[in-house]
Amino acid sequence: MLITYVSNNSGGSWWLKDEDWLALEKAGWRVAWVREKKDDVLGGPDKDGRWLGALAKEASKEFPSPGAAMQEFEEITGENVSDEGCNCCGPPHSFDWEDGYASGAGCGVAFIVLKLCGVIDWSWWWVTCPFWGPLMVVLAVLLVVVVAAVISERFKF
What we know:
alpha+beta, 4 strands
């Protein structure tokens, strides 16, 4: 699945250095260099090929899972994908993906990898929720429908 990393200027500075972007590209990530892309809303790069001082804002690569992408990203850049950033700007690192099927399972796999790597300190109930949570929602809806049917049949006038 294609995983896209998006950098956020959190706290007034970019968290990735020029060397990080170059290392990502060397590892096979497709870096969206600012000099090659014009943002319709925010405009294009300055004369040095940067946008607000950054050489790039995003990169993407095919991975078997989001967890594998996050792990490789951390190994290459030395950054922690769970850094919170500042209160006003939000997290400095975000990862997007579309697997077209069972996206909850993709999140579940990512959560398990993050839990095993010690990145998140959640209960295993929350880590595995993407696997069993949707089933619980369906069962709850079915229970409500059955109870409503029984009540309406019982109090038929």
